Amino acid sequence: MSKFHSNYMITMKDFVKEGKTILHQATQEVMIPPSEEDKEMLICMLNFLINSQDPVLARKYKLRAGVGLSANQIGVNKRMFAAYLTDEKGKKHEYTLINPKIVSHSVSFIYLPQGEGCLSVNRDIEGFVPRYERIKVKGYTISGKEIIVKLSGYPSIVIQHEIDHLDGIMFYDRINRENPFKLPENTKSLSF
Question: Can you say whether the dihedral through the CA atoms of 161, 163, 169, 174 is positive or negative?
């Protein structure tokens, strides 16, 4: 049985740091319907994100604030993630997705001018990460129901970052190696 049950509190000691093999390989699909263990783990992951954004809890437990968390970041080779964020219009988004797959995307790109960060990376990495402006993602909910989610703007960036994790891709793998601030045509900045 996994230690990541719904009553377990994930802290920074649970995170796998960059360079570890599990972060650079594609994760394994999760059986549908998900097991109770998988459901509990997703709840645990979502709770970490909520706790990490609470200033009192974050200070008390020394949590770095996060908006997304993939299972392989806590050492579990499963294709699932949790996300908890506020978009550029102030709307809250909460996702626990299993076996997510991008089924369509825009031709236009966006990027965060301040760059992206990652709970598995303990250093600043300069450069722009181009992401699709809009995506359509197919996956399964925590109850095993198939859903399609349409995302744009900041939620689209966060979900692409997490799906990349599940595919063994780190955000800095998408930064232009020759010129970290070079962007593809048809790319605009996303600002809050």
Answer: negative
